[in-house]
Amino acid sequence: MVKKNVNKDFLYNIFSTKILTKNLYTHRQHLIKIEVMLLRPKVLVTRKIPDRGINFLKTQCDVDVSQQNGSISRKELLKKLKSKKYDALLCLLTDKIDDEILDAAGSNLKIVANYAVGFDNIDLKACTERGVIVTNTPNVLNQAVAEHTVALMMAIARRIPEADKWARKGNYKGWDPNGFIGTEFNGKTLGIIGAGRIGTVVARICNKGFNMKVLYHDINKNPFIEQEANARFADMATLLRESDFVSLHVPALESTKHMINHKELAMMKKTAYLINTARGPVIQEDALLHALENKTIAGAALDVFECEPKLVCHPNEYQIFTHLDNIVISPHIASATIEARQGMSELAAKNIIAVLNGEMPITQVNTDLKVNAIKKGIVTDAANYFYARNGMVVKNLTELQSALEKMDDSTFNFHVNANKNDFVNWIRNTIKDQVAVALLEKAKTRSQAVNAIKHRLKVMIVAY
Ligand code: GLV
Ligand code: GLV
Questions:
Q1: What domains lie within the chain, and their CATH numbers?
Q2: Which of 220, 293, 337, 411 could staple 144 via S-S, CB 3.0–4.6 A?
Q3: How far is the CA of 147 from the centre of ligand 1 (A)?
């Protein structure tokens, strides 16, 4: 049961005086029931989302789901937040969460759970300053977004929307050896910009399924994508020059804004396609329009847009944009599968319940906020990091062994192997066993890591 502080004496006084003095025992039962009702924390959900998470929230909280048609207006959101002292806010990527919203919510607010993996709609600093935990929904949507990315690659390379439109107009009069000629994937090069969780799944599908070569670029090397998709690290220029498909998987940050601009587009092959399922502002829209109009690249497939929900920032370019044949558009639907959306709903709800129970959420974004970690006696950065990612408290090698045994291989690969430095630093700082550190540094798989710990523990026992 989620706990909240209420003044029990105050409640008791109300119910034990004048009105309910006849049967103290029954009144106590009433009191407990009413107290339980009053103790339920309040959650605001800004739009109807799949029910799995909502139902879970309802088991422990009072849940208000906005019934507005479409996304909630800012005015309405402010009004709702001021009307009740909400403990948690489950919001969408279309809700801008900033100082004004947080002030309206007031000091009761403990968590903002974003129903998205991207969190560029949230002012993290403002949340952290107020001690508000922010969570997102990574992993549960990796497959959906990756599959949609591949669907867009196929749609643009095989000209499916263009052919569909043409055939619907009654143009198909007989098989044409020269009609709608496209490009094959086999043996082509895919360039992944942003080799995180989603980029890695795209790379794996394309390498394993289509025999594509994979290049990747990121701020750090990622051994996991290299291992999963035979991917090779490349600098931006090499990746852009050599790729037949360039797919973007970076978050929207100051540093990724207009990452693809005139200069980058000019480096791409004339026959290459650009795919964006990340965030619109990563591409400089005018530069892309220019490249598509002048056919300096073969085409683009976009799920996100610089001035979303507008397809183009400037209204006078709308006609040009929507009439180009070398572009495929989908309206920000990459995570739109039943599996992903139910998963996102459940994960957002679990994050909320965890925080309201005084525990660390599963997927915290502002991990510098350590209120809960400190409460749990976890004080180092790396332990906090590992705990936030995996929801496990680990203080020695035996506990680490059991944590790793409980973890599945893909979680290990995504959260441990791909963040090896953090992991190793954490072991170094908390467990302070240099031999174990060296062994774990070498371990590439979960079972190797477990075996390394077992080996180390055995040697230690013998030594004693
Ligand atoms: C969708 O764009 C997301 O960030 O989940
Ligand atoms: C992007 O959010 C990613 O996880 O790669």
A1: 40-139+348-352 (3.40.50.720), 142-329 (3.40.50.720), 373-463 (no CATH)
A2: 337
A3: 14
